[in-house]
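Homework-ish question, so no full write-ups if that breaks the rules, but can someone show me the predicted structure for this set?
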Amino acid sequence: MIKITVKLIGPFVYKLGFSEKELTLPEGTTVDGLCAAINLDPTRPRVITRNGRAVAPAEKLEDGDRIVISPLYSGG
Amino acid sequence: MYGWTGNILRINLTNRTYNKESFDEKFALKWVGGRGFALKILWDELKRGVDPLGPENKFIVAVGPIAGIPAPNTGKTVVAAKSPLTGGYGDGNLGTRVTEQMRKAGYDVIIIEGQANKPTYLYIEDDKVEFLPAHEIWGKGTYETQEWLYGKYGKGAGILSIGQGGENLNLYAMVRSLEGRAGGRPGMGAVMGSKKLKAIVVKGSKPIPVADPEGMKVLGRDDLRKVQQIDKETGWSLQGTTGVLAWCNEVAALPVRNMRKTHHPDAWKIDGERLNAARVATYGCPNCTMRCGITILDHEGRKSELDYENIGLLGSNLEIFELDQVASLNYLCDDYGLDTISAGGTLAFYADAIDHGAIEGDFRFGDAEKAKELLRLAALREGKLGNMLADGSMRMSRRIGHGSEAYAMHVKGMEISAYNCKFIPGMALAYGTSPIGAHHKESWVITFEIKQTARDSYGPEKAAKVIELQRIRGGLFEFIVACRFPWIELGWDVKNYALYFNKVTGLNWSVEDFWKVADRIYSLMKFFWVREFPAWNRKMDYPPMVWFDPDNADKEGPIAGRVLELDKYDRLLDYYYEQRRWDSRGIPTQKTAEELGLIEEAAEVKKYTQLE
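A: Not a homework solution, just the prediction itself:
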């Protein structure tokens, strides 16, 4: 098992009911797998970063990762 | 001619005269409105080198063909003049009832010339203009000024006003309206102040000329509802623009400590979640169904409307992480009529200069109470320090010296807004090439850079993205004059604006027609700068040098050890110039000018420099 931290940004906080939390997931869980685990609507445009850098949906998570899920902000 | 009233109201404050002029369809189709009209008029009517704060400068208020028509989000007006902050072309837009009232009064443009001999405000009602004494409101803040004018003319009146900042010629004084709306970052409030013009009140009673009024009414009403529904479904306005703060903190793009740092462990204390939880009211512009004005009580218990830029510059960039104190600084800027971005940037520069021993002083990062005092000094130009702060970070750094010019965070004299591009090349280019000085409103590419391309790419795709967004944000939305938020934040298709434009004008334009106007405007804005600064070179399009300094790199976090690279930035700038068909100095070529219909303008600029 791996432990990761998920941080949600903006409206996702209210949609999913939390702002930030630690999750324990099976090894080999992908970014897409994480999104499914927290019930993130797959049709909602989003940008996901791992430790501050963009990460692809199929990439596997690693123990200690900080995953940030944000809507596509556009700079006001 | 539908869509335009075809009328310009010209007011001379020196002679206390006014007259109505007309423009033809050729002018309307070439420049469309708002920024396009303002730019062309300033280009034609200002001589090179006029003092921005002298009577020769002109203050322009301009709307566009869909402005004031009920549709998403058409409550905006452009204010423009030669900028006292940058010395180049300056403008900005703000949500205001002036938009609709001005069109109902029968005008697309108001040109204000000369200088009153005593504090004055203007009351415009249809064909009548009154020059009225402003001594009762001169010296007052914008809140009290607005209430005084509401008392006389009612809350439905369109009002633009300035605070003490504009009166005292603070170079980043803005124009204000409604409960927190401000526009004209490059010192448009100071231009009003230099003319001793405290406020403009507009009321109108005529119909706005629309080619298909019934069709536009139905389309506009339905689309306002659709935008409202999208906002509700996505939850965007729960945090509005401030949602981006937490994200910038995560991806190392937040301005912290005069942009020395890109993230901070206490940033959560001032983020969108905290703001939404503290909300006591919500404000929006006219014709808006996705209201972004989140209002909270400040440290002194006053209502203060905040957005991301306010918090980024007056909060994290000053290392002030108490939301109510940030709200207090924002309230003061609004009341004095100061740009929160330049005010925050200038105060942060001052603290940084003290830190680096370039100047002596007792202001430190994190000191909210001292920051309040400094804003007062800057607004009132009180003492030597107040005068330095009132001139913005570029001029302040030149006076201080000791190498401080490198960390005065501005482009072309205007302070950088709340995105720290220490290692975001495309956004640094967007700031560098913004035609009014550093401003995010012209182009914003950070999500694109982080999600869709490598962050450290300096490739032509980034220059193309900057231009694509400049055409929409700095072009379309500034000349048609509407808020970009439904498009940029909710995905409202930009093609809808062609529908509105065609319903209003009876024309049959596509969005591609808009892009040609946008390119024309961007090239003429560059000509405006070049006429003022004939020794123009590409360095004028550089961001601050500290972003290229390896010693300034983050020590930890996502971009540890990384900064921008100057040779690569130069290459990126070349891509940008090539795609715009400008020369290697960043000046439109003769051929480009001809293709954009700028032949006379090119002839004028050739008096001062050669065109390739």
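Now go work out the reasoning yourself. Hint: Residues 31-37 of chain A form the longest helix (7 residues).
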